[in-house]
Amino acid sequence: MSYLLDTLKQCADRLSRYSRLGQKIGEQNTKAGLIEPVIGALGWDVLDPEEVHREYRRRSTDNPVDYALLLMRTPRLFIEAKGLGENLDDPRWANQTIS
Q: Rounded to two decimals, what is the model's pTM?
């Protein structure tokens, strides 16, 4: 539990620093610096695609979701990421997630 709390504090510190500077760090850097550390601290092996599948598509014709968290090789939770500083009220993001 202390590892999770430490990770959340580190991510909150990063978030505060980036926000204070008004930086947009982009989606890939947001994933690497803020999202993946939390996924790992929650117990998921972010390096094992049988646990954390990046750019997951249920069908080959589907748009990918950034992360699918799997239990026994079955997707159980999906995470869609956006870059720090993006406006989450933009209808494009809701449409992307729904599709």
A: 0.85
